[in-house]
Amino acid sequence: MIVQNEAKLDRDRALVAFLRARITERAPAADERERQLLAGTQRVLDEFAANFERAAKVEHTDYFPGQIDALGWSLRCTAFAAFSEHPDFQMDFKP
Question: Which residues neighbour 78 within 8 Å (Cβ) at sequence distance 6 or greater?
Answer without folding.
Answer: 19, 41
